[in-house]
Amino acid sequence: MGRLVEKRWLQVAVALFAVEAASYFLLMYLPMSASQVTSLSSQYSSITQPILSKPDVLDKAYLIFSHNLLIASIEFVPALGWAFFGYSTYQTVELLHAIALSPSFYGGSIPPQLVVLSLFLLPHTWLELPAYAIALTESLFVVRAALRRGLASELRRAAAVYAFVAGELLVAAVFESTEITYPAEALLTWLLALPLLGMVALAVKRGAAEPPQPALPADG
Questions:
Q1: Could you give the CA distance from residue 22 to residue 110 in angstroms, rounded to a whole number?
Q2: How far from the centroid of its chain's Cα atoms is residue 215's Cα?
Q3: What are the domain boundaries of the chain?
C-alpha cells in the first residue's frame, strides 16, 4: 500500500486513527442512565447473538467481515462517510459502555475504560480500527482531488485502497472470530498478528520514504 500513497496521506490516516482510538476512551466518561444501559445491552445482545451462535470460526468471520465491510464502504462515501465515521464510533463506544455497566455481562462493577483497554489488547482491533481510518482518509482525498481536477487518478487509487481495506477487514474478522471461539487463547493470536502487522508497517514506512508523487493531471 505504501507505493499508493504519499506522506501527507499517511499522516492524515494516522491522525484519524489516533482520534478514533482516543474517542473510545474519552467517550466512556459520558454519563449513562440505567434505562440506557438496559436498552443498549439488549441491542448489543441482538447484534452479537447471530455471530456467537455460529460454531465455526469461518462462519463467525464471515458475519463479522460483512458487517464491518459495510461500515467501511459507507465511510468511503464523501460527506456521508465522514458523518458515519463519527456516528459508528460513538455507537460502538456506547454499546461497550453499556455492557461494562450491565449486571448481565460483567456484574455491573467493571470500569468501562477497562473494557476498552481489553479490546486494545487484542490484535483484531489494530487491524479493524485503522481500516476505518484509512477508508475515511481516502474519502477526504477524493474530495481534495475533485477540487483540484484530479478526480480520475484519485478514483483509481480509491479502488486500490478499497481492496486493501477489504483485505485488512477480512484478516481482522478471522482474528476476531478466533478470539471469540477460543477466548482462553485469544492473546496467543498475537503470535500470528505481530509478523503481519510488522510487514504492513514496513511497507507503509518504505512508501513514506519514497519521493513525493507527481501532481495529478487535470481531468479531460
A1: 20
A2: 30
A3: 2-209
